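Protocol step 4 of 6: structure prediction from sequence.
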Amino acid sequence: MPSPFLLAESGGGATVPVIILIVALAGFALAYFVVGPGQRRGPRRRGDIPLAMRPYHSDEELETTGMERAMAWGVALAVFSSLFLPLYWLIEPDRINRAVEDQYQHDVERGRTEFQNACATCHGVNLEGGSAPHPDPEIQAPWPAPSLNNIVARYRDSEIVEDVHDFILLTAQRGRPGTPMPAFGTAAGGSLSDFQLEAIAAYILSVQTGELPEAEAFVGQSGEDVFGANCARCHGQDLEGAVGPQLVNVFERYGWTGEDDESLATARDVVRRTIEEGRLVPGKAPMPPFGQVLTEDAIESVIDYLDSLQQTGGPRFGQIGGDPQPAEDEEGDQ
């Protein structure tokens, strides 16, 4: 017959812990009535004697029956503990796991409701993606909202996102500045608490499909077309910058001197890696990875298009929202 411990570890049912508890209680009762206080016999003291006037145990009683009772209690408690602790060790992990699973299911259900109220308008009822009004009222084209039912697969091999759960929370809390994605965290002026955002993240992660659409090749289209369809809304149609930095001298910022081919190749490699892997800038809208969205040829055409427009002598750092405008001379200045 297999031991109760092996049965419990192999999922032998909930009866094993109950059996151990019954045995523990039986052992405690046996110790109590056989060698413990339960076996005490003898004349009772008269009930009419006040407690304060009743004589205490004699030295002989303290050194015999009194000591035996104390030792018997020790034996009874030792027997009970030796049976109860293994029982607790068997039961508690399963109880904790069930509690965690119940809490997770509760968070998923609550997150489903919160998502439908706050996110489904743009990202779709089934997280399939959608669109939002462009933040520039003069632009009629909608701003695409990415699908969220495959976000884990999209960032599985990403070097900029180590934990997708934390990435979802950070994006929901702070939003994506310059895009239609607002900040939902109360610390950033939003209306949702951390508990609500945690529930939304749990729901998003619970419905992942793991499926990614095939990379778009943009056959027959130029690098300018690919750039306009995927990059211009953040970097500007003329590379002037908007949500993302200006790209007019991006090659120069990555080491291109404007003449030698070696520094040009290095700059192109950095730009290629950025397009493929994306970029996460604290406090700014993250650049998503396009390595699984665009084919290698399409990415190369974008780099060629950027190459054709590169200038030198620009700012050392890309300016978010375009180059800063020079301050106008104050009245009276010479």
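Step 5 (inspection) to follow. Residues 1-13, 322-334 have pLDDT under 50 and may be disordered.
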